[in-house]
Amino acid sequence: xxxxxxxxxxxxxxxxxxxxxxxxxxxxxxxxxxxxxxxxxxxxxxxxxxxxxxxxxxxxxxxxxxxxxxxxxxxxxxxxxxxxxxxxxxxxxxxxxxxxxxxxxxxxxxxxxxxxxxxxxxxxxxxxxxxxxxxxxxxxxxxxxxxxxxxxxxxxxxxxxxxxxxxxxxxxxxxxxx
Length: 178
Hints:
Layout: H1 8-37, E1 43-46, E2 50-57, H2 69-89, H3 97-120, E3 123-129, H4 139-157, H5 161-170
Antiparallel strand pairs: 1-2, 2-3
Helix pairs in contact: 1-3, 2-3, 3-4
């Protein structure tokens, strides 16, 4: 028996609502950081382990590409266009639902930081794992990082050749015959 397909319009509506809520949550947390952390000492949550510390990041993770705002804007637009295309083209079957969820999460993270770059020329970061001196990050960074890692794990361990063939056909790519 073939698994039931999810209604495409319902999936798209749910995806948009979740995308808006996730993006809104990211923006609210950044606004909180500006109001409560800007110009203040860090808020220590776990001594020598984890704290909230305000940072204006004009680059990417680990401080790379500082001041390259245009690169981030173009890259974000390209990534969002690709995600939208994939979201619309991947089969609307239950087994591919996790891919859609992960695309929504990744897109929300990309847009969360995109909003900051457009409106302020920097991204507000505030989570700091002091124990390992990890770069300061934000909720949008968590969305993107966790979303990409989980997506990679699902693509490597869950989906089989037949699933990739089905997805490729929906994306209008032809599988090479060897």
